[in-house]
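User: Can you predict the 3D structure of phospholipase C? Sequence below.
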Amino acid sequence: MARRNSSRGPSGQVSRRVALQGLGAGIGAAALGGGCAPGPDRCETGPASPDVVPDFDAHGAPTAKRLLAGIDTFVVLMLENRSFDHFFGALALDPDYPARDAVDGLLGDETNEDDEGNVIAMHRPEVACEHHGPLHSWDAAHQAFAEGKNDGFVRANIGSALRQSDAMTYHDRSQIPLFYALADQYVVCDRWFSSVLGPTWPNRFFLHAATSNGLTTNDPITDGPATLWEKLGKGCWSAKAYTAGPALWYHAGFRGRPLGGNEPMVSARIEAFFQEARAGNLPNFCLIDPDFWSSDLHPPHSLALGEALLGSIVRSMQESPQWGRSLLLVTFDEYGGFYDHVPPPTTVDPRPAFRQLGFRVPSLVIGPSVRRGEVVSTVLEHVSIASTLATRFGIESLGPRMDATADLSSCIDPARVGFPPGPMGKLPRIELDRRRVEAVSFRFTSQPGIDAAIRAGAIGLDRIDTRSHEERLGSLLRHAEELEVARVHG
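Assistant: Sure. Here are the predicted structure tokens for phospholipase C:
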């Protein structure tokens, strides 16, 4: 049963050939600079105020705009390829989780069958290491969905007993302690669905543009739609994208429009995020890409390294002068082929094939004004990010999908709005063996399209961090240790 209930050329610039030669399977060694596109001159006077609306509705409850009014800095970290049940399903079985009875997680008897009727039950892997993960293409996702029965996760991986077994795995507090500690202290969204019942790129397109322009595969958009970046720029709100890897996913994914109007207004290394948080200079909207070679949590990459990245972001925000007016969303692009028991609902979309949402993904909303140790079951998806920016900053709509999608106001605790941040909860220190991390890093990238775009010259050298993988990893680990979120061994 499925479930019960780097040399320089003539111009003096580093040539692409020399910068990238000899890098083998990876992209190696100098700069992801800043300045993709400067803000418009008309923004010298600062952003316009959003439309004034009542603070309370007809029933006396605070409006969404009122609840989000205290948020000036909105940070998003989107990781890779995990379903809700795979990462957070065990919250329902965890006696230490304060909202155990409220979260829609695992019961412990969930199964799927293969084509021959062999039953594979949900199980916890003995060690927190994995293979390359189950299949999760458009077709595989629809096969897993099985018209709402959610009983095709094993059958979608016919031909690979290893992937069939992996599809039915889950992790618990012992393997991802930081995620569970953050769940204890902040908001878990147990109805956050991926935007598309399919792979990474369409889902990331929806984050940026509330559409994938009909793409169902991991290919670039060549007729670029409007994005939340240009809407933020038009409204004179500051925004910046940061990456822990060689280049932003955005610059590989969006190739259609003349760069400038709709791309991230400034891009930077992850180190800049930590520095700006410390100085209290984070912009209104921050989007963080992990390193898709190591810290993105895509199997087989290290769970501990992904947690070290997350912990570093959380702690740098908590120690920032901006913490009192900040909100961090941690989510995943899509389900990665892993089982989830909740059939995703439909939504509004001009393209009928995209009205079906994808499977649930693990999502946390973190900040001093959010509900504490609670579950929020409002139906949310990646377009909710743009919807939240519209509610808080008044950015223009990206279309009917965005107009119909809920924002994050349900995650805010009305009793905490307008009050100073309370004490920060204790977070577990991640024990990280550098040799084990390196053993599962740098040999596989979850986003080969970024590597291909760099090699094809589709991403400018000024937007590429050409440090070696080892240098980037060493920098992240140093920050994790300095912020006291990890202990590095080996």
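The first helix runs from residue 16 to 20. The chain has one domain: 62-104+176-489.
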